[in-house]
């Protein structure tokens, strides 16, 4: 009985963990190229989910809803880069922190006015009927689709970065911006691409998680904090690291809410965050950067 | 006094009088409730039901006050189900010139935060559809002698008794109690626990809490499942109730979900989909054409708001009937003075034919020892409803037959 419960909680938690990992992965992409992250990433998740929901309401089949969502996410990512990040980076300032937060707040107000404050269900053709994994542990196809989608998109992005010219350009800017620019690579474009990718990844997170959590203007408020913890704990460089940390955090949260009570659900993430900041400020999977002065 | 001042004074007097006359032409009624957020289906339906009644009354010229008709002027306020906003709105309404009555409130916490301001200023309020017991019992201790608050909803005391009764009828001996952490959920849990202990035949094997906004209920449900619960008795609102129903399906915990009337909210039914089928809850009104009056009401609601389903039929019907009760009380009082309206409500001489029932002396003189003097609903006005295919239907066909006869 006890093992069954632990197993069940782990399975439910892992599904959410994959989503944390995916959002954290979006943080990493822009951090790699520009050393900036979008603090309004959660709002990108939310707005993309709403756009996908509207597309679905208009009668588009799920097979088209997903690309529409991903494209709108990419477009929103580009928008954020253009209005909130580019100027700040050009001035070598930290203005993007406040600017991305402001764009995020704006997105929440816009969503409340366009789509209303209510939580709405997200239609999906994927079944919610639970499947028995044996031993009394069950999982729903919707949860499996989250895991599958997250792994798939991470693999695709890695292939993009390693195998395509554009991806290699983005990678080169991540490795050394000045050297890359000397080789004729436009750092600005590479950063813009990384923001577009990051936006698409956020949109995918929204589409995948919406059938589980429903869609509302505040759907990503807690999600984004967890994702941020994951990114910091894992380190802002390691892609596989965020996956490991994200899933572990999801599982830990589930177990904490079972053994300590549901009110303690958020604690493992915060404890992990504090420990990581104290013991390994570059993250568990991060590498210490040497700053030459 | 020179000419100019005299003129000014006369002008001011005339202006004052004409203003008075204008104010006296309309009856000021405030409608408050959550029109956005998780409680919006209840708040919105209540408002729309009440406005439907007002529109129909205004078509006939308005409320009858002392032989002439007064148009009803509605003031709407969205409290967003937030206690602090509710308090601010109540303060605003309490200081509003010429306001005679308030109808509304969905959330017990909002009632507790705001009603004291209305009571202080002696504004009549008909609370609907907030069901939490505390809304009325707050006036018992410390005792309030002269109460202007009336409730027009099946109080949680009645509802919890029915939920426990239903669990007993289905021969369950072990149940889990789940509730949200709001005033509504906690007072629901207390009511349920008291009823179950008083009954003695059922034991509570798990008591679990969740917060507004929680999506993952598997921890609480696994504990309930592990403890061998045969039914889940629940007190919460739509979105979280849906999360519970969905997670019950996910972990294969196939037991009946029985709870407060909130299980009929559209955001429960929609978000839970077919996982919500079979959920049972006390209802004061079912959106089915049973009687001539209910058919007419449902049709005119659908037509007025362009919907094919009322988001919360109970709230809509209660909002509608509350306005009818108020209209009757104003007519009997022959005045817009809240104290006279209060006295009339406490002693309504003419029966009021509403969509839920024909209300025959729903209230009596406020008695601190018996808070039910300001409660309109009795056990016999409430029936069990059940979710089936996205609609709430009669859980017990006998209730339908019984209603049809009247």
Strands, helices and their partners?
The complex is a heterodimer of chains A (293) and B (406).
Chain A: H1 2-34, H2 41-57, H3 62-90, H4 95-115, E1 131-134, E2 137-139, H5 141-163, H6 165-175, H7 177-182, H8 187-213, H9 221-234, H10 239-259, H11 267-279
Antiparallel strand pairs in A: 1-2
Chain B: H1 3-25, E1 26-33, H2 40-59, E2 63-65, E3 68-78, H3 83-94, E4 99-104, H4 108-120, E5 124-127, H5 134-137, E6 149-151, H6 156-169, E7 174-180, H7 183-199, E8 203-210, H8 218-226, E9 231-235, H9 238-250, E10 257-259, H10 266-272, E11 280-283, H11 292-305, H12 313-333, H13 338-346, E12 352-353, E13 358-359, E14 383-388, E15 391-394, H14 397-405
Parallel strand pairs in B: 1-3, 1-4, 4-5, 5-6, 7-8, 7-9, 9-10
Antiparallel strand pairs in B: 2-3, 11-14, 12-13, 14-15
Short description:
The complex is a heterodimer of chains A (293) and B (406). Chain A has 293 residues and is mainly alpha-helical.
Could you explain how this protein is built, in words?
The complex is a heterodimer of chains A (293) and B (406). With 293 residues, chain A is mostly helical. Chain A has one domain (2-279): ABC transporter involved in vitamin B12 uptake, BtuC, CATH 1.10.3470. Chain A is built from eleven helices and two strands; from the N terminus they run H-H-H-H-E-E-H-H-H-H-H-H-H. In chain A, strands 1-2 form a two-stranded antiparallel sheet. In chain A, a hairpin with a 2-residue loop joins strand 1 (131-134) and strand 2 (137-139). Chain A is globular. The model of chain A has no long low-confidence stretch (mean pLDDT 87). With 406 residues, chain B is an alpha/beta fold. Helix content of chain B is 46%, strand content 19%. Chain B has a six-stranded mixed β-sheet with strand order 2-3-1-4-5-6, with helices on both faces. Chain B is globular. The N and C termini of chain B lie far apart (71 Å).
